[in-house]
Design goal:
With about 250 residues, this protein is of the alpha/beta class. It has helices at about 25-35, 55-65, 80-85, 100-110, 110-120, 130-135, 170-180; strands at about 5-10, 45, 70-75, 90-95, 125-130, 135-145, 150-155, 160-165, 190, 195-200, 205-210, 215-225, 225-230. Helix 7 (about 170-180) links the parallel strand 8 and strand 9 (about 190).
């Protein structure tokens, strides 16, 4: 493994989610596989703890990567020892979407969170969609059971905040923009469905857009009482989080 901290965060869609009908979201996984290659030799693992190991998403994972790579998954019943073995020879980790708060709480209680951070710092490519895409950031705004939003700490491998489903969930978009504008939440990135952002050592390396209709990713920063929205650009430095020993 390279030792670079690599994150591939998908705003929504991909093999575990409903698509726009064009079927172009496969481009996201193709690009993810190409980060490691050659695909015949790599191993990819899946974690579906945010959705309580939904059977249809596990099936979708094995179907999507059949013939592309060796595949495995970490069941939600796993403890730290099993997680350590699971991570041992992985090249790519893909984390599915669902309830981010429950997933992070489970990982921390089971001793899995520190193992994930250590593995990514050694060079494991960390990827995922929705909850699995934003969990790697420092500052998160997450939906509660009563459909409000509250701030939580992420795993801290990338500095700042991140918002998935920016184009498809107006309530999430508004809450994120408000929290950043009020400086309750750190500046960060927002990612549309069908879009993946590849980050290397805290720097944006690539934005992959699998869908049309202007889908993209954005940099959201406070500007007075409003926010400055900028298209996220290759080369923008987000910074590395506290999990890497840096200040945010």
């Amino acid at each position: 493994m390279s030792g670079l901290v690599q994150i591939f965060a998908v705003g929504g869609g991909g093999f575990t989610h409903a698509q726009d009908g064009a079927g172009n979201d496969a481009l996201l996984e193709d690009r993810l596989l190409a980060l490691v290659g050659p695909v015949a030799k790599l191993k990819i693992g899946y974690i579906g703890h945010a959705n309580n190991d939904r059977a249809d998403r596990l099936t979708a994972f094995y179907s999507r990567f059949a013939g592309c790579a060796r595949t495995t998954h970490l069941p939600i019943t796993a403890e730290a020892g099993m997680a350590q073995d699971f991570l041992q020879d992985l090249d790519i980790l893909y984390v599915g979407g669902g309830t981010t708060t429950a997933m992070l709480s489970h990982w921390r209680n089971a001793g899995i969170a520190d193992l994930l951070v250590a593995a990514v710092r050694r060079g494991l490519v960390a990827s995922g969609v929705s909850a699995g895409g934003i969990c790697w950031f420092s500052d998160l705004l997450l939906k509660t059971e009563d459909d409000c939003f509250e701030q939580h700490e992420g795993l801290g491998l990338v500095a700042g905040s991140a918002c998935p489903h920016f184009s498809s969930e107006p309530d999430r978009k508004q809450a994120f923009e408000t929290a950043v504008a009020s400086r309750q939440l750190q500046s960060g990135i927002a990612i549309d469905d069908g879009v993946g952002v590849h980050i290397i050592d805290g720097v944006v390396a690539e934005i992959v857009c699998a869908r049309g209709g202007g889908k993209s990713a954005y940099l959201i920063m406070p500007d007075g009482e409003m926010n400055a929205h900028q298209p996220l650009a290759r080369g923008h430095r987000l910074g590395m989080g506290l999990a890497n020993g840096d200040s945010i």
